[in-house]
Specification:
The structure is a homodimer of 341-residue chains.
Chain A (H helix, E strand, L loop, with lengths): L16 H12 L4 H12 L5 H9 L7 H25 L4 E2 L2 E2 L1 H5 L1 H21 L3 H24 L7 H25 L5 H28 L2 H4 L5 H4 L5 H7 L5 H9 L5 H13 L2 H20 L6 H23 L5 H5 L1
Antiparallel strand pairs in A: 1-2
Helix pairs in contact in A: 1-2, 1-4, 3-4, 3-8, 3-16, 4-6, 4-8, 7-8, 8-9, 9-15, 9-16, 12-15
Amino acid sequence: MIIINPDAGVMLFQFSPEIISSRIKETLASDNDEVNQIINYIVENSGKMIRPRLVMLSSAFYSSDSIIVRDVAVAIELIHMASLVHDDIIDRSLLRRGKQSVNGMWGNQVSVLTGDYLFAAAFQLINGYGLQDIMATVTETIRIMCTGEIKQMSMAHNLDITEEEYLDKTFGKTACLFAASCRAGALASSMPVQEVGHIEDFGLYLGYAYQIMDDVLDFVSDSLRLGKPVGNDLVQGNITLPVIYALRKPGVGPWLHKTIEKRSFDEANLQKINKILIDCGAIKYAVNRSHQFLLQGLDNLHILPPGSARNQLEELARFLMDDYFNKLKLGGEKGNQEAID
Amino acid sequence: MIIINPDAGVMLFQFSPEIISSRIKETLASDNDEVNQIINYIVENSGKMIRPRLVMLSSAFYSSDSIIVRDVAVAIELIHMASLVHDDIIDRSLLRRGKQSVNGMWGNQVSVLTGDYLFAAAFQLINGYGLQDIMATVTETIRIMCTGEIKQMSMAHNLDITEEEYLDKTFGKTACLFAASCRAGALASSMPVQEVGHIEDFGLYLGYAYQIMDDVLDFVSDSLRLGKPVGNDLVQGNITLPVIYALRKPGVGPWLHKTIEKRSFDEANLQKINKILIDCGAIKYAVNRSHQFLLQGLDNLHILPPGSARNQLEELARFLMDDYFNKLKLGGEKGNQEAID
């Protein structure tokens, strides 16, 4: 259902993660050696830089100042980094992308301060250019992310969570910053205001699609590829879409409900849960929902002027989803292929 | 040496903490009940609101928009609140001003997010008026506060700390935000640029004076007045000015060094340390240093145009120091009076 394009990724070579990384290091440089050491560690272990890519491509429909766009992209990545550093305290995660997290390496205290430092540096960068509308976008986004996460914490282990509440959670967790990245890029260019809403919605729906696949992968990938234990979300009390779907299935729902309620997450039960999610169609349902969001995002993108920026954003979206799709197919468990075909 | 003015405080009645508190609540209002509950708890347990007072009085030398000034004062208080909420995670403090801290009530996770939410709200407020120079001041201040605290953590329990390093630590901890408060107030008014540096320096030196007294009080007040255990700084590994002074005194230094190094902080030793700090002149020395900073602050203030704003800032400074001085005199230990006379 998601077609893997063998050329995906080719177009992305125009984006240089090194430019973002080196500017991040430059921006964060401090006269304190320990701070610099922490910063280097985070930058060297950074991810796919999806959000800076979204910023830069979203700015490319119309004219813009490339230095400003780069720095807005850097600021958005800093905000993402700050939220990850703080998330690892919240989730008590000692691993991030298969390596030790900042709190794994330096403890909670340093993590709190490092996150604050990254936030302040991001705002400082945006403020340097007097970009008031971009600042308004990112500050509001951070408020949404924080309140969303506080709400999520009060919903942890809650088996009555609806799909709507799950999507609300997904908005705060991922979709709102994807949307803000696209909006910030557009605002850094001369894009007409009526088009900004569409690029923002493209980011929003891509964010939903991306997070749903991330949640699916938590079950059906293997821990090596994932960089964290399989079923980790469930163990942490984070009830995601496949589980919400399966809990409402008559045949398997009651057992699943009881097992999660008792938090009986031994290896055998986690494997059984995995099998249930595949067999009852929960994985397929979630992958479908993700795909629907992707299409909704692309619909918004297609309203925007055709050309290189639009093509590359589409490539990026498909590349991200294909990357997840590949992980799903190659995941440790047999039957994944069957579940998603 | 610090004259207690019986009228101190009278002039301060023009400042209404309720205006700040209610605006804080308005600014932070969320559609999430739990967030609102946390916010109300923090606001109801807020302190003396020194920083918003500094903002408002610093703006009063020249013309300004009272709504903007109020909101800048609110933003500065939000930043202070955010840093306290995060500090309580860092210090693992379950108490704040004699009541449960946010992490005492809701845990580290909620505290991280609440602090981030407060920071974002502060930036949003300043950005709403497009106050680029004030934003630059506060973002830079937060960076200094964070790097200062990371540095402080690596210096914890370090008995070789010099007075200069202590003052450096004090700058990041308190003085830089006092300075930023005065600067922000001035920038929100039409104060000529050459005068802004003086009001900023007034805040800076007042901050040093204030923090030194706070550190002194940690030893010679009683825990009821302080709202935290006596000698708490020392137990946490925070080596402050009286201890730095006493460590270098031949008669008492070696015993103090050994005791702190072994972290033998039973009740008897804490009382003995208290007595040593009084007897060897360490408390007196620190109070004197604090007073010197206060005078240095006032020297800067006296360069500014005379009138109500200047008088009230002077009153505020003296009131704050007198308040500390009273606590010192009334503290649980006999001999405090003697130590500071």
